[in-house]
């Protein structure tokens, strides 16, 4: 009997001391701050890296001004910011003059639900003078990003302006002088200096401006030049003759794949197999084994 009484008292003590369920809530996952990669303008899914960045709104061409800007709202899923008279619920547009050439600051990132693919609806919270607005950020398509990030522009200027570049062979043999409109002949191996980076008003694209010792001025694109310093470093490794072949747009059996990129640019795609790599260039293929060219068609 005493044994039963002791067990009952112990059980009663256990129930009294453990009778209450502790209430608690698990902390929500905290998104880590991501550093902005200033080597590129659009950050893809690293959207939190825009926080604290200054965004310049790129103007539209004369033909596109009438369509305004898409994706700017007073609040997530809310009314459109500075709507055009033609703006509707299904096609909300912001007046071109309300945003063109303006610089906005990214204060925060707001997630509001998910889209039909299950991806988060991401909004950049922006300030423009005394206004607060939200831009619906496209996670998939860079062409829907209407900004130039000023940090990216700063990096572009530091990496290019004042530097010397070597011209490579391209399909076009001539171009037009950016200042005078006269014909300029492309000469592979010629030296040009980047003098400026401008927003060209024809298509409102960032454009590098190059000048040579003849005082000719052209607007350049990435495939047209390599840094003179980079060319010289390649010559120390592979020799002047082989590097010049790449600058002239040629590839050769045994050419290192680094020089294939100099010659033909980065491939559109790379197919991998047990024997090596197949680099795809608009219907042409370069075959590479152990880092060197073995053939092409």
Reconstruct the topology from this structure:
Layout: H1 2-18, E1 54-57, E2 72-73, H2 96-99, E3 103-114, E4 120-128, E5 131-137, E6 147-149, H3 150-160, E7 164-167, E8 174-176, E9 183-185, E10 191-200, E11 205-211, E12 217-220, E13 225-227, H4 228-238, H5 240-247, H6 257-264, E14 269-273, E15 276-281, E16 284-289, E17 292-296
Antiparallel strand pairs: 1-3, 1-6, 2-5, 3-4, 4-5, 7-10, 7-13, 8-9, 10-11, 11-12, 14-15, 15-16, 16-17
Helix pairs in contact: 4-5, 5-6
Tally of individual helices: 6
Approximate shape = globular
| Total individual domains | 3
The strand count comes to 17
- Largest β sheet strand count, sense and barrel closure: 6 strands, antiparallel
Uncertain regions: pLDDT < 50 for 5+ in a row? none
List keywords for this structure.
alpha+beta, six-stranded antiparallel sheet, 297 residues, 6 helices, five-stranded antiparallel sheet, 17 strands, globular
């Amino acid at each position: 009997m005493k044994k039963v009484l002791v067990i009952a008292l112990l059980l009663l003590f256990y129930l009294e001391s453990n009778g209450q369920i502790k209430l608690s809530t698990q902390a929500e996952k905290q998104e880590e701050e991501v550093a902005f990669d200033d080597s590129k303008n659009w950050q893809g899914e690293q959207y939190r890296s825009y926080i604290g960045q200054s965004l310049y709104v790129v103007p539209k061409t004369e033909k596109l001004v009438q369509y305004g800007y898409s994706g700017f709202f007073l609040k997530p899923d809310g009314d459109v910011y500075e709507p055009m008279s033609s703006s509707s619920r299904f096609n909300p547009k912001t007046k071109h003059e309300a945003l063109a050439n303006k610089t906005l600051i990214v204060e925060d990132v707001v997630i509001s639900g998910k889209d039909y693919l299950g991806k988060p609806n991401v909004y950049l919270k922006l300030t423009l003078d005394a206004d607060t607005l939200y831009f619906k950020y496209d996670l998939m398509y860079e062409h829907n990003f209407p900004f130039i990030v000023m940090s990216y522009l700063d990096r572009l200027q530091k990496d290019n302006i004042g530097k010397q570049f070597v011209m490579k062979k391209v399909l076009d043999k001539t171009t037009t002088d950016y200042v005078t409109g006269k014909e300029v002949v492309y000469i592979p191996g010629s030296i040009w200096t980047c003098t400026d980076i401008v927003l060209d008003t024809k298509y409102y694209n960032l454009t590098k401006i190059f000048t040579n010792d003849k005082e000719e001025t052209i607007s350049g694109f990435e495939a047209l030049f390599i840094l003179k310093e980079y060319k010289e470093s390649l010559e120390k490794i592979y020799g002047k003759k082989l590097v010049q072949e790449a600058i002239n747009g040629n590839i050769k059996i045994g050419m290192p794949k680094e020089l294939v990129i100099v010659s033909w640019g980065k491939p559109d795609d790379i197919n991998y197999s047990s024997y090596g790599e197949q680099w795809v260039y608009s219907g042409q293929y370069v075959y590479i084994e152990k880092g060197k060219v073995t053939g092409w068609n």
